Amino acid sequence: MSQSTKLVLPRICRVKLHSFSLFTLEPNAEVDIRGGVFCLAGANGLGKSTFLSAVNYAVTGIVADPTRTFMSVDEYYKHCSGYSNDYFSGKITEDDREAAAITIDLVIGNRYYVLTRGVFEPEELRELSIRDLRSNKVFLDGVSLSGQRRQQEYEKSIVTDVGLGSFAQFVFLQYFVFTFDERRQLLLWNQNILNQALFLGIGADYAKAQTADALRRERDKAASLARNFSWQASGIRSQIEVLRKAANIDASETDIDEAKAAQKALFGEMQRKQLDAESKRNELNDVELKRMEISARLTTLQAEYNDEFAKRVRERSHIELHPIVMMSSRVGGCALCGTPGNKAIESITTKIRLSHCPLCDSPISNGVLGGESVEKLKSIDDAISDETKNLALTVQTKDRIQSELEASDAVAEGIRKELREFESANEDLLLQMGTKSENVDIVIRKRLDEMNDCLKRKDEQYRKRDEKQKELKKLFNELLEQYRQAEKEFVPLFRELASLFIGIDLDIRMEYSSSVIATGLSLQLEMQGEVRRQIHQLSESQRFFLDIALRMALAEYMADQRGKVCLIIDTPEGSLDIAYESRAGQMFASFAQKGNNIIMAANINTSQLLQRMAAMCGHSKMTLHRMISWTGLSDVQLAEEQLFQDAYGQIEAALDKGDK
Amino acid sequence: MLMAKLKLHWTRGTSSLLMISPYAYFDALSICKRLQSIRENAPLGEIYLFSYLSCLLSLYKQRPLSYWSYGFSVTANGYPYSVELDSAIAILLGHGLIDQNVQNVSLTEAGTEEHRLLSELSQNHERDIYIEGACAASLAVPVGTIRRNIASVAPIEGALALSQSRLLLTPSDLEDTCEQFGQLSSIIGVEITDLMIPAIFWLSYLSKVRERDSGE
Lengths: 660, 216
What we know:
Chain A is 60% helix and 12% strand. Chain A is α/β, with parallel strands linked by helices. Chain A has a domain at 253-433. In chain A, a hairpin with a 5-residue loop joins strand 6 and strand 7 (138-141). The longest helix of chain A has 63 residues, at 253-315. The radius of gyration of chain A is 38 Å and the shape is flat. The two termini of chain A are 48 Å apart. Chain B is built from 10 helices and 6 strands. Chain B has helices at 2-15, 22-39, 44-60, 83-94, 109-119, 122-140, 143-151, 154-161, 171-188, 196-215, and strands at 42-43, 73-74, 80-81, 98-101, 104-107, 166-167. In chain B, a hairpin with a 2-residue loop joins strand 4 and strand 5. In chain B, helix 2 packs parallel to helix 6 (122-140). At the A-B interface, helix 8, helix 9 and helix 11 of A face helix 1, helix 5 and helix 6 of B.
C-alpha cells in the first residue's frame, strides 16, 4: 500500500505594496504577518478583497476569474493568466501603472523567498531572491536575470520546494484549497474541483492528477464523437428509406427530362447570379481598400496639420503679455524696480516694439505670424481638402456598390429559393432521374456502406471512451485506496473543526461513482445521522463555513508538518446569526492555535466572529490590522467613524482578555 | 490679486499648448468675432453654447459626428462644455488674441488678424458656415431662450435635473435630434446654404415642446 506524499506548504510572512493607488492614504502599505490569525479589518469598500487578491496575484501571477467554470487544472491556469490586467485596471491610476507592484516574503520549508511582481506584469518578476534559512546562504539571486527568467526560476523552485508536478497545480491549490474568496467556489459541491484537490492532496502520485485530468477530457471527447457518428448514421438511414421509396415510383422519360431541364436552367441561372454578386463583392473590397488608404492619408495629414498648428502657436511671442509687463502698464510704472511714470512704460514698450527684451535687451521674435507659417498650414489644409473630397467620392462609390451587391444577392437568393422549391415539389421525379441513371441498388448500397462505416466508427469511439473510463477508474481506485488510508487522519480533522462550527454531530462520507457520466469521488455530509446530499439542505453561510473547515482539514492533512498551513479567507461572515458567528470564531481560533496561519479580511463590526476569535487567540495568536487608515472613508462612514473605533476597541479588549 | 490672475493666464496659456486643437482654436476666435459684431461682446459661456449649436448644424448637413473633431459634456450650469475649447480660450487669452473683461470676451486687434489669416484655410472656411448659422440665430432668438431650449433636450435636461456631468452627442442622445433634423430637412432641404434658417426652425420647435410640456 503506497504512502501519500506530503507537501511543504508556503507561509506568507510579509506583504509590501508599491504605488498601489487604490489605497490613497497608504499606497505603499506594508504588513508583517506573524503566526496565527492576521485579520485585516475595515469598512465596506476599502479594498480588503483587493488586498487579498493582490497577495495571491503576487504569489501565483494570476487573478482568478470569477466567471470562469473550472474545467481542468491546466486550462484554468492558462485562461486566468490574462485576467489580472482587467482586474487591476480600475484600481490603479494611470500614472501609477508602471510603478505599481507587490512584494511578498514567503517561507517554504527552509527556504525564504522574496519576490516582487509588477501589478501589470503577470508573466515576470521584478525581484526574486531565495535563501536557505539554516545557513542564511543565498540560494538564488535574480538581480542579473530578466523578469521572465526570474518567473521561470521562481516556478521551478516553487514546484520543487512544495513537492508538486507543475506550477499550474500549485496555482490550483492556492486558489481552490488555500483560499476562500469572493468566487465562493465550494469543494464540497463541485465534484470536478474536489477530485483534483484530492488527487493533489491525498493522491500518491501528482502526475496521476494530470493523467486523470487528461483521461477525463479524452473520455468525454470520445463520447461526444460517438454521439455524432450515431446521429450521422441515423441521417443516412432516413435517406436510404427515401431512395427505396423513390425506386418504386414510375414516371415517363419525358416528365423526367423536363424536370431535369428545368432544374438545370434554374441551377445555371443561380450560378450566374452568384458570379455577379461575387464580382460586386470584389469591387466592394477594392473600393473599401481605397477608402482605407485615403483615410490613412487623411489621418497623417491631420496629424501634420495639428503639429504645424501647435508649432505656430508655440512660436508666437507673447512677451508683452508677461505678468510683469502687463502689471507695469496697469500700475503706470515699472513693476520690477518700482520706477513710476510714463517714461518707464515708454522704455518697456519701445523695446518690445523694436523686438528686444525689456529686461536683458536680447533680440526677440516680433510675434507676427503671417506668411510662412500660414502658407505651410494652407498647403496641408489644401491637401486635407482634396483628400476629404476623394474620400467623399469613394464613400459614395462604396454606397452605390453596396446597394448593387445587396440587389445581386437578393436576386441570387430568390433563384436559390426557387430552385429549392422546384426540387422539393419534384423530389420524386428528380430522385428517379438519379436512380434510373445510376441504378438505385448501387446508390442504396453506397449509402448502406456509409451508414455501416458511421456505426463502426461510433462503436470505435464508444470503445475508446470505455477504455479511457477503465483507465480513469483504475486511477480513481488508487485514489479511493489513498482516501481510505487518509480518512483516518483527515476525517477527524474535518469533524473536529466542522463540529465546532455547526454544534451538532457531523460526519463526512466518501462516495464513489464509476458511471461514465460522473466518475469520481464525492463527499457527503451527514448531520445527526441524515445525509445532506442537496446543496439547498444547508444555508449559504453553513455551506461556506463547512467548506472552509474542509479546506482547513485537507490543507492540514497534505502538509508535511502539522501547524504549517497558511489559508487566505475573504470576509466569510456573510449572513451568520450571532450564535454561529461565535462558533465560526471558535473554529478559526482552534485552527490558529494549532500553529496554522490565516490571513483574513473581515468587515469591522461588533460581530461575534472576531470577538470570539480574539478572546481565544489573544495577541500572541492574532494580529488585528486596522485598515480604515489606508484609504478615505465615505461620507456615511466618516459620520459614524466612532462606531468603527468602538468596534476596534471591543476586539482589542477581547485580545487583551485572550492574553490573560 | 490681479497679478495672480495674470499669472494664471500666462501659465495656462503656455502649459496648454501641447493639447491645442486647431479647430477649437479657430472656432473660439470665429464665434467671438461673430458675437462681438452682433452684440459688442461675448459672454464666455456662450462660446461653448454656440460651438455646440454649430456642431449640431454640421450634423443637420449630414456631416459625420467625428467631423467636429472635439466633443462636449454638460456641466451643472447648463452650458455645454468642451475641454478643447477651454484650452483654446486659455491660449487665446494668454497670447492676447482675446481680452477678458469680467465674464465677457472680445477679439483684440491681433485676434482679428489671426482670424482673418485662419479663415483662409478651407477647412475653417467650411466650419465658418456652421458657426455663422449658429451665431446668426441669436438675431432672431434671444440667447437665454437658445440656452434654455438646448438645455431642454433630453441628455442635458437629465444631467441638470440630477446635477450630474455627462458626455453629450453620444449616439443614443442624438436619436431624437436626428429625427427632428430629418423632419426639418424634408421641409427646407439639406442643401440650404444659410444655416440660420434650420437653426431658428429647430430652436422654435424646441420652444413649442417646452411650452407644451410646461403646460401639461
